[in-house]
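Many introductory courses stop at the sequence. We go one step further.
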Amino acid sequence: MTRGQFCLLLTALLDGLPEGTDCTYPDVTKESEAYSAITSLYLAGLLEETAGETFAPGQYAAREWVADILVRLASCLSGTEQTRVEVLGSEVASGATSESGAVRSENELLRRDEIAVILVRLAGRGETLDEDALFFTGNIPEDMDMDSWAWAYVTDALTEGAVETAEPGVHRLYGWLYAAWDDGTIMRDMDYGVWIFGLDGRYTTGSDELDEYLAQALEESGANDLPEQEEALAAVYLYIKENFEYLVMAEDMTTEDVGTTGWEYARALRFFQNGGGTCYGYSATFGILARLLGETAYIVAGQVNQFYGPHSWVIIPEDGIDWIYDVELEDTRSERHGDLELFHIQNYTIYNYWYEPDW
């Protein structure tokens, strides 16, 4: 981060700075984005008095330079605020605010994540960060996760306004699914409804390979970019219909007993591996993807009343209605009967088929 950028962020945190239009540094012109910020900090006595010398706003901020500003700021304060900023300045100078916790050089350039730590602590929030609430803001950068040393500070710095406790229930975040307790903390290592959450709080099937396939499907279908549930569901439904085919492999020759569960993950994994499968693979794959999108999706082993043949589909209850989603039947029967639409339908006779769920 450059000196000019740091000055912009610092002035956004500080109240009551003097305003001026005459900057003493010859290399800081009025066209500079940081002109007003640098001028205000100089007039407040927070920048070194080097009249006639250059400021180098495009130069990267070094540890000694930032620590010096904090020392000057502390001298303008009193009481506990003065002590807090003095301690912060001392820790910046020593490297205690860095990932390693030790300074290598006074001229060491500060990384962006350490600057986030400094600014959040300067704002007085460093001791009270609610990591669970910050996680559920959805603002963790793509190149960070909860194992990154400064992720909470960076996320706090990126979050506008107060950080609120998450609503209880499931949340679509970071391309996956998580859940919050009533107090806003992350559910971990437990079953919750139709979902299983791992130690990291993420919904998981228990198979790393299947989880990777599912994440890829959400990305390739575009569902991750669709905040509306019905649109996201439609995207994965269409993705399955257009990218997989009806296949009867040797391991899929058997049917599942009506009303049984526990077969879904194995069927979905083979469906991805083989590029298709039977109705059980279609329904398992769509149902698990629907769960990843936050839907209470039931994957049904049932039968249809044309000769009471075994069949599988997905049910998602909504407003007291058990809505049916049958991507396999829509995919395989459309050529015979014309374009079928079996996405979000109520149970009814369709070409002599009647769904008989038992779940």
